Each structure stands twice: as structure tokens, then as C-alpha cells.
Amino acid sequence: MNYKTKTQIARIRNQWSKIKKVAxxxxxxxxxxxxxxxxxxxxxxxxxxxxLGSGYYKTAYSKDSCDFVVKVHWQGLRDxxxxxxxxxxxxxxxxxxxxxxxxxxxxxxxxxxxxxxxxEFFVEKYGxxxxxxWDVHEANVGYRNGKPVIFxxxxxxxxx
Length: 160
Prior knowledge:
With 160 residues, this protein is α+β, with helices and mostly antiparallel strands. The chain has helices at 3-27, 32-46, 112-126, 128-133, and strands at residues 50-54, 58-62, 68-73, 97-98, 102-106, 141-144, 147-150.
């Protein structure tokens, strides 16, 4: 991770803390919807990120000049640690930072074509059924440094 990336991540983490404190003063408690909405608005308007996509549990944001993706976990970060024992663990892009509500992960190169190509690599290596159990599909894979990677999994309580 280079200096620019470290600085950007530090700014985002600092803003996360500020937004939480302000919301706590206003609401007297952690009001997750308000905090997460304000944080997402900060990423879009003040940090210049774009909405990359949304799933059931999270929304991803980034911008061209960033080497990372910020994921906002609307229902709280699910325990997705099961992937660490999965056969594909060495291909998973581990977050650089995570707490219960946000995670910051290295960015992969993704297009629908690259996603299909990387997915075919993983299907050949591990089988479609195994990948299906982890919610690994064409939209959750891509490339980083010229190598296929998985950037999103759902462990559904699986451990291997």
C-alpha cells in the first residue's frame, strides 16, 4: 500500500469517526441508518467516489484514482471469516480495514468480460457447486496485478 492510499484511507476512517460522534450527540445513541447514510453521502459528495454496485448486505464505492473500494455494510458486517478456510482463500482480497459497518478492500479490475474469464478460472479449479456455496460468481471476481481474485464471498456459516 503506497503513501497516497494510506492517506486516503486515513481520511475516510477519520470521517467515519467524526460522523459517528456527531450522530451520537444528535441522537444520543448510534443511529445506524443516519450514520451510514451520512457516511455514504460523504463518500459520494466530499470524497468524490462513485457507487459501484449494491448487494443485499452492502454497497460498494470507489473512484478511478483510488486503489481501494469502500463497502458500507447496511445490516452490519456479517461474519464472513469462513472464507479463510475455503479452498480459494489465497485468491480472496482481504480487507485492509474493517469494522462492524464498513470495510476497505484493495480494488480489483472488473468488467463483465473479465469477471466471466476469472470465474471460469475458478470453476475449473474448484467446481461451480463449491463456488455457488460461497456465492462466488461472475460479478464477485476480477483481476488484481494480472491475477484472478475473489473480492466478495458469503460464507453462509461455511467453514471450508
